Amino acid sequence: MASHLEFESVVSRFYEPLYQFAFSLTRTEADACDLTQQTFYVWATKGHQLREPSKVKTWLFTTLHRAFLESVRKQTRFAHQELSDATIQSLTAPPTTVHQTDSVRVLDCLSRVDEIFRAPVALFYLEDCSYKEIAEILDLPMGTVKSRMARGINQLQGMLTNDLGSSFGQIQKEANE
Question: Which residue range is the domain that position 12 belongs to?
Answer without folding.
Answer: 1-84
